[in-house]
Amino acid sequence: MVSEKDSAAYRRILSRYDDDPSRAVIVGNSVCSDVLPMLYAGGWAVHVPYHLTWGHERAEAPMEHPR
Question: What is the pTM of this model?
Answer without folding.
Answer: 0.79
